[in-house]
Design goal:
By secondary structure, the protein is an alpha+beta fold. The protein contains 23 helices and 26 strands. InterPro entries: Papain-like_cys_pep_sf (IPR038765), Peptidase_C19_UCH (IPR001394), Ub_carboxyl-term_hydrolase (IPR050185), UBA (IPR015940), UBA-like_sf (IPR009060), Ubiquitinyl_hydrolase (IPR016652), UBP13_Znf-UBP_var (IPR041432), USP (IPR028889).
């Protein structure tokens, strides 16, 4: 006890703001349930496994630890216990879905290092400071638990300030039960009923030009009538949530139940407590309504729980379960199967195995990590690599294997990107079609920043390649620009399907059955079968660019663009664009098979560069005009965004309005302004100056935080004037300084070719990731990886030998260069 008293100055009483890591080791996947339990540093509140706690003592000198051990209780018979109906969209919280965790007995003791002297807890003999500190650690929500709750509890809609006193015109409008059509056009879908005057109008025009015609929002701007409800989503079944099971949540389903009511002045979906009364004003009986359209979020429930799911997961197959190094599963955290599938593939490639396992020990990564290793990308990548590849956590259990839970890794990789957790309707559906392109860019970009200047150690180098684009305007003059990327997104040309006759016969049969009120069985469905070669050809073929500003003609025109590889990467990642956007920000998944061979040769796709006799487009605008020069977007940024699927013209606007600062800044601007009524207006000559003015008070606020004024201005311009986003921008761009040029943080699109791997264009398929469901935010991801000459399926924590390889159903394909 005297020894403990001599170390009291090393014991801290946790504050509410402290992050307490008592669920998992910060450098391994050991937990209180592991053989040696978990040791919580009573000064830093970091957790360590038995093999690693001495590293903490050596690094910090903190000697006092709370040792937590959990042992599973015998399972109780719960077969007769009724399931409690959930009332809250959450997991593991009161009123939410049960996480069905088994119960554990928990024991505690105080341990003093380096001798591992243990003292019992609770004990009245312990110093009061120690008792108080330990009690607070035990009672506090752990850092992991706080993160889980924040991620899973859906934002509750607020009651609109306009709902209780909503003006409703006595204009005699009676809304019929069916046959709705926009009052200003012929649209019959994505219709909104204005609750003040009963006008039925179409929704917003989407980012890609499809969708409605903006008549509903234009009506609000003219009348200022604030609330509208989406027709077809109205229902009196307020208990619909009870029909959702925890199994569905396992497949990442996010719901917003009941009707879609939108407040234009509040710019958000809201709750209208008097909705029934407001609807009855227009002759609508709320209690008798049945939904004919899904709410925007309920569409995410419409998953393909049929043949595709069974085939991709190889359900019903007698597969051999696999264990050991390289065959460790990743437990589903509730919304993590996309990340898990990608990481299983990444850590099957040589660059990642070498960087974070073979050449990086856990102890070395911890020794060089900052005070909080849970926030260090290198530490968490190393932790994940050792967790997957060591085999330590790949032991057989009754259910197969538990797998590891990469919560700390997920938190680190998603930091500074709050848009990934946003439930805004437009953002959710945008990422449904663009998630692989954007998330891969962010993931690789984060790793690039963490490994600056060392191309041999940087695992991203093997995936990086340069695309060279050639643009020719009607003047005959051309321009070339290069951009670097990690993934090639490919459109799927359905007209190139090789089974057109079968498709025509099936469509005729389906039409006849529809007339008879019959449904086609899943076994009878015929899907288009498109060769991968056709998808690659669509990328390299000519593409028209509307609204291209030609510096030769000093006007906007339509140009022609072609693209090719300047360099071929060691690992080629192909993203199949299986999602297109429908009305109401609803992603439609193309129901298509891709014929993918085991080997491909894309040598013919290498770019040829500037050819003899070609005349280049002049840089900037012509000097003959006295008028201000047209603002010019950085083509590297524009091309990168356009390759993700954004509208090309919108990409130009985003680049200009962020001063060509970089891809990430332009993408953030685009996500924030895609609903602007003037998003499709032509770019004016003074656009850059007018859009980029910043509020002086916002500048001074950032300056008061200690940032330099020119850095503050640059951050505000890159963040649309939002102080919080500007602060995040500064912290995520430490290279920004008063002497930095406006494009200092630009993705190195014109990287020196010598920094890139290059070689043969011949590749072999080594992995693919498949998606099940109608939206990337609804469904499930599974990885298939070629290991040791055999295909294995990685389905969350399940790892097994593949029996029936669904190679034609991939969403992402990974190829490795064939050595010559």
């Amino acid at each position: 006890m005297d020894l403990l008293r001599s170390h009291l100055h090393k014991v801290r009483i946790p504050e509410p703001t402290n992050r307490i890591h008592k669920d998992e080791c910060c450098v391994s996947f050991d937990t209180p349930r592991s053989e040696g339990g978990l040791y919580v540093d009573m000064s830093s509140f970091l957790g360590f496994g038995r093999e690693h706690v001495e590293w903490s003592y050596e690094k910090t000198g903190n000697p006092v630890y709370l040792h937590i051990v959990q042992r599973r209780k015998p399972d109780a018979d719960e077969s007769d216990r009724p399931l409690k109906k959930p009332t809250l969209l959450a997991i593991g919280v009161e009123g939410g879905f049960s996480d069905q965790e088994p119960e554990y007995d928990e024991t505690f003791e105080i341990v003093i290092l380096p001798e591992f002297i243990s003292l019992p807890f609770p004990s009245v003999d312990l110093p009061e400071k120690v008792r108080l500190a330990v009690d607070k650690v035990i009672l506090a929500e752990s850092a992991d638990r706080k993160q889980q709750l924040a991620a899973w509890v859906a934002d509750k809609k607020k009651i609109s300030v306009y709902a209780m006193d909503l003006q409703q015109l006595d204009n005699g409008v009676i809304v019929p039960p069916t046959g709705w059509k926009c009052s200003k056009c012929e649209k019959t879908e994505n219709l909104w009923l204005n609750l003040t005057d009963g006008m039925i109008l179409c929704g917003r025009k989407l980012w890609d030009g499809s969708g409605g015609n903006n008549h509903a929002i234009e009506h609000y701007k003219e009348t200022k009538y604030p609330l509208a409800v989406k027709l077809g989503t109205i229902t009196a079944d307020l208990e619909a949530a009870g029909n959702c099971t925890p199994e569905l949540l396992h497949f990442e389903i996010f719901l917003l139940f009941c009707s879609d009511v939108f407040s234009y002045p509040e710019d958000d979906s809201i709750e209208d407590p008097l909705l029934a009364q407001h609807l009855s004003h227009f002759g609508i009986d709320f209690s008798s309504l049945q939904k004919t359209e899904m709410t925007t979020a309920e569409r995410e429930l419409d998953c393909n729980t049929n043949y595709d799911w069974n085939r991709i997961q190889e359900s019903g197959k007698d597969a051999e379960l696999l264990f050991g190094p390289g065959y460790t599963g990743l437990a589903n955290l509730g919304n993590s199967c996309y990340m898990a599938s990608i990481m299983q593939v990444m850590f099957s490639t040589h660059p990642f195995i070498s960087r974070y396992f073979e050449k990086q020990s856990l102890k070395a990564a911890f020794a060089t990590s900052p005070a909080d290793p849970t926030l260090d990308l290198n530490m968490q990548m190393t932790k994940l690599g050792h967790g997957l590849l060591s085999g330590k956590y790949s032991a057989p259990t009754n259910e197969g294997q538990e797998g590891i839970r990469p919560r700390m890794f997920k938190n680190v990789i998603a930091s500074n990107h709050p848009e990934f957790s946003s439930m805004r309707q437009q953002v959710v559906f945008l990422f449904s079609s663009l998630m692989p392109s954007i998330s891969s860019y962010i993931f690789f970009d984060r790793l690039d920043q963490a490994n600056p200047g060392n191309h041999e150690l940087n695992p991203c180098t093997g995936f990086k390649f340069i695309i060279e684009e050639r643009v020719q305007c009607p003047s005959g003059k051309v321009s070339y620009n290069k951009r670097s990327d990690y993934m090639l997104s490919l459109n799927i040309p359905l007209h190139e399907a090789i089974n057109k006759e079968e498709l025509e016969a099936f469509n005729e049969k389906k039409a006849a059955m529809d007339l008879d009120g019959k449904e086609v069985s899943t076994e009878e469905i015929v899907r288009p079968r498109v060769p991968l070669e056709a998808c690659l050809a669509s990328f390299s073929g000519p593409e028209e660019i509307p609204d291209f500003y030609s510096t030769a003609l000093n006007s906007k025109t339509t140009a022609t663009k072609t693209a090719g590889f300047k360099t071929f990467p060691d690992y080629l990642v192909l993203h199949m664009r299986k999602f297109v956007m429908e009305a109401g920000w609803v992603p439609k998944k193309l129901d298509v098979y891709i014929d993918v061979p085991d080997t491909i040769d894309i040598s013919h796709m290498r770019s040829k560069g500037v050819q003899p006799g070609e005349e280049m487009l002049p840089e900037g605008a012509s000097g003959n005009s006295a008028e201000p020069a047209q603002p010019v977007a950085n083509e590297d940024i524009v091309s990168q965004l356009a390759s993700m699927g954004f509208n090309y013209f919108h990409c130009q606007k985003a680049a200009i309005n962020t001063l060509n600062t970089g891809v990430e800044e332009a993408m953030n601007w685009l996500l924030s302004h895609m609903d602007d009524p003037d998003i499709d207006d032509p770019i004016s000559k003074d656009q850059q100056g007018s859009e980029q003015s910043v509020d002086e008070s916002s500048v001074q606020t950032l300056v008061s935080f200690g940032f330099q004024e020119d850095v503050a201005i640059k951050a505000l311009k890159a963040s649309g004037g939002n102080i919080e986003k500007a602060t995040d921008w500064i912290f995520s761009h430490p290279e920004a300084s008063s002497s930095a040029s406006a494009d200092s943080s630009t993705n190195n699109a014109k990287a020196d070719d010598e920094d890139m791997p290059d070689g043969s264009g011949r590749y072999k398929l080594m992995a693919f990731v498949s998606h099940m469901g109608t939206s990337t935010h609804c469904g499930h991801y599974v990885a298939h990886v070629l290991k040791d000459g055999k295909w294995a399926i990685f389905n969350d924590s399940k790892v097994a030998a593949s029996v029936d390889l669904p190679k034609d159903m991939g969403y992402l394909y990974f190829f490795q260069r064939i050595s010559s």
